[in-house]
User: Fold this.
Amino acid sequence: FRCEQVKLKKCFANTNAIKTSKYNPFTFLPLNLFEQFQRIANAYFLFLLVLQVIPQISSLSWFTTVVPLVLVLTVTAAKDATDDIVSKCVLCTISPLRSEKWMDVQVGDIIRLENNQFVTADLLLLSSSEPLNLVYIETAELDGLVYFFSFHSEYNLKPAVRCEPPNNRLDRFTGTLTYAGQKYPLDNEKILLRGCTLRNTEWCFGLVLFAGPETKLMQNSGKTTFKRTSIDRLMNVLVLCIFGFLAFMCTILAIGNCFWEMNEGSQFMVFLPRQDGNNAAFSAFLTFWSYVIILNTVVPISLYVSVEIIRLGNSFYIDWDRKMYFSRYNTPAEARTTTLNEELGQIKYIFSDKTGTLTQNVMTFNKCSINGKSYGDVYDYTGQRLEITKVNTVDFSFNPLADPRFMFHDHALVEAVKLEDPEVHAFFRLLALCHTVMAEEKKEGELFYQAQSPDEGALVTAARNFGFVFRSRTPDSVSIVEMGEERSYELLAILDFNNVRKRMSIIVRSPEGKLCLYCKGADTIIYERLHQSCSKLMDVTTEHLNEFAGEGLRTLALAYKNLDEEYFNQWKQRHHEASTELDNQESKLDELYEEIEKDLLLLGATAIEDKLQDGVPQTIEQLSKANIKIWVLTGDKQETAENIGYSCNLLREEMNDVFIVSGNSPEDVRQELRSVKRLYHFSLDST
Ligand SMILES: Nc1ncnc2c1ncn2[C@@H]1O[C@H](COP(=O)(O)OP(=O)(O)OP(=O)(O)O)[C@@H](O)[C@H]1O
Ligand SMILES: [Mg+2]
Assistant:
């Protein structure tokens, strides 16, 4: 790899420095003091201190106030300082083999990253130590999930890059790279975002595209606002009331003093003469301030400190809580802030993801429907469904490449594969070809799959065991072993998955030279794009799909289509033009995809099980007893989602007023909510 400084026009930002901490050593004292004196009590004691230095008023010596005030300020400052020490510094190498602090990295620099290093800017991947320039990254910081992504990149020469302006969309990137007059499309797959960590990859080189506050991660983090808890607010109100009370008492006492001066003051002078005579009003004024000092103990300065200390202790209890310790990943609960603990008890709403949060994210291929026949349930000779646990698992020993951990119980499917049923073969061929899984073969015959989505991993593994083994891929071919025979398919296009399209397709040329498009995706989406000739098969498959979804399984429909060479070449040309375009790239690609993904022929459907995590139903039950409202987000088919809702106690039998809002525009949704409201006479939150 040649390290050359890239001449890139700097349209956006400059250095990678990001301020994640509030203070630095010089600003700490003034800033922190300023913040602390915004608290009423602290400001009050400062004011008191000023009063105490005036000898006419003061009856107490000044240090009676200074000591507690300084104590309070230091304790709080110490706590703030420890909360603030977070930012770390990572070193990386810049061409030509220079070491720099990551905060000095600039747009256009080429960076070398090493395994387990944190990616500190948005990079265009140039090359890596792995075959095909693959990189594995962990994206836990970005989306809270731990999984591996794979990237490939084929550029390793002086490029010029044009790309979209900085934005906060983590799942999208458009740009072009020009080299030697050739334009290459750049997409999300070739970008490493700040916030991920390099894994299983010795090294990689990347070109900095966005740095510092322009990185997608930083564009996503909103302004940090100072959060106040309701106890804070209550304390402020209480302290204000106490002030009112104090002022009231001092006023009464000052008025009393005024009367006393007028009536008795002159006689008192005999006994303790005063130089400036007796001025009742002025004396009352001074008395007022004296009492402000004398009665200072009414204002509980220690209240704030006590609450802070209680919170600190409380956060230790959270960290130490054994019931919140997850031994499998060795993760205890962690209180990231010490100021908001008590709000935990005030939670009203929980927003949760389904896959991987409620469920284990361990997908198993359970059932399928191929050409109108359902596989997966096992029946005895009288037609009774048998308990899966009582049936022998299928023996895959005919296939030396099978994954030994894969289990399946229905022998009929293996029989169908062995009898060379063409639909069954096409079904598994599709599963082996249409995906974005990467294969690793460390030893001959020992395959490991790295899948971005665990569903795909499960499907490819299923195909592998039934004799359609996905073996390896390059940017323009996919090699599979079909029933023992090695075949390489030329990969012509990947029409990638996103959550709007809800489907993915690939276009391949078989070793015999036939062009074919394979598509898998959500059943509703696939059904809209099927050829009329499969309407009968559609009805049967729909029944199977509903059955699968009724058991809470995640379903996908599979379809294919043979393509005409001439049409495809012309389509491919338009596809290339669209993908190197900067504006409207996405909508143009979508149109092209839409055009080619129609008149498909249905093959069947798959059903994948993702079990609930331990204790989920119990937890949800307890939460709903506490009157906490729970929202769960999922992209599953409606029936599957409802079913899982029932199995995790989110929906319960006694809830007979469950209703579905299926509108796609704000107006539709509002309309539907209104009609439901009329029907059930309940009140909707204004949200
Ligand atoms: N790899 C894939 N290939 C084709 N279609 C897919 C793929 N993954 C999901 N789908 C389809 O797209 C739909 C939306 O999936 P998406 O992954 O966006 O949902 P999600 O929000 O991740 O939901 P969940 O958290 O339940 O997985 C799914 O219901 C499924 O039918
Ligand atoms: Mg998903």
About this structure: The first helix runs from residue 28 to 36. Confidence is low (pLDDT under 50) at residues 1-14, 86-95, 144-152. Residues 353-355, 453, 455-456, 497, 499, 502-504, 520-522, 556, 634-637 surround adenosine-5'-triphosphate (ligand 1) (CB under 6 Å).
